[in-house]
Write a sequence for this structure.
């Protein structure tokens, strides 16, 4: 895809996201997963190839459970420099919300037998709609596959964990999110709820009801007599 679509969608005078450029490297290819709390919370799964980050938005986040077939929507390529981006995309901009790095590391593309393949072969598999790769991150490890769903549009894929020594029966990406990220998300939800149903303002009638009722003259006289 290149970076044309990425750059067209963003106003770099307003957003702290890197403009970036296509940058091919000879080092081992990187992968990154970013937690993106935008209009809807999702995780962005990115693999370095062709000098950019091939990217998929995964609503429920990646999983180490092979039974979890996570929906993954392929989005525009991002610059390699985006792999370290963390921060707030301001309101009014594409993808407005909070972004932080959930996991990162290196990966290698593999074939059906788990043997390492070249980038050229990997790109051919990508074009065919089925890629396999082995990641080495802090949270994600082992083999995964991304497979395009037939009849569901050009960009609809599934992210699937292969059954290996790193597989787990149950896995929720949110359980491994940074505490600071969860706190920001909670604050954001609270603000959203307040906008939907702001606290009721005290009306003049309500305020009058809360005032202490004045003492009647008869009651005052009774009080004097007691003295």
């Amino acid at each position: 895809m290149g970076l044309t679509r990425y750059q067209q969608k963003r106003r770099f005078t307003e957003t702290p996201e890197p403009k970036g450029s296509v940058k091919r490297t000879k080092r081992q290819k990187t992968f990154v997963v970013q937690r993106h709390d935008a209009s809807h919370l999702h995780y962005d799964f990115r693999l370095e190839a062709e000098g950019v980050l091939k990217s998929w938005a995964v609503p429920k986040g990646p999983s180490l459970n092979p039974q979890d077939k996570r929906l993954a929507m392929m989005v525009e390529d991002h610059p390699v420099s985006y792999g370290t981006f963390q921060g707030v995309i301001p309101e009014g901009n594409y993808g407005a919300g909070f972004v932080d790095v959930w996991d990162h590391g290196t990966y290698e593309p593999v074939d059906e037998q788990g043997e390492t393949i070249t980038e050229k072969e990997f790109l051919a598999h990508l074009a065919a709609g089925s890629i396999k790769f082995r990641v080495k991150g802090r949270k994600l490890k082992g083999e995964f596959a991304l497979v395009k769903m037939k009849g569901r549009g050009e960009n609809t894929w599934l992210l699937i964990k292969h059954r290996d020594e790193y597989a787990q029966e149950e896995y929720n990406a949110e359980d491994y999110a940074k505490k600071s990220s969860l706190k920001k998300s909670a604050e954001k939800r609270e603000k959203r709820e307040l906008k939907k149903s702001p606290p009721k303002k005290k009306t003049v009638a309500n305020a009058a009801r809360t005032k202490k009722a004045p003492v009647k003259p008869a009651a005052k006289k009774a009080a004097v007599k007691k003295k």
About this structure: Residues 4-195 form one domain. The mean pLDDT is 89. The chain has one domain: 4-195. The chain has five helices and nine strands.
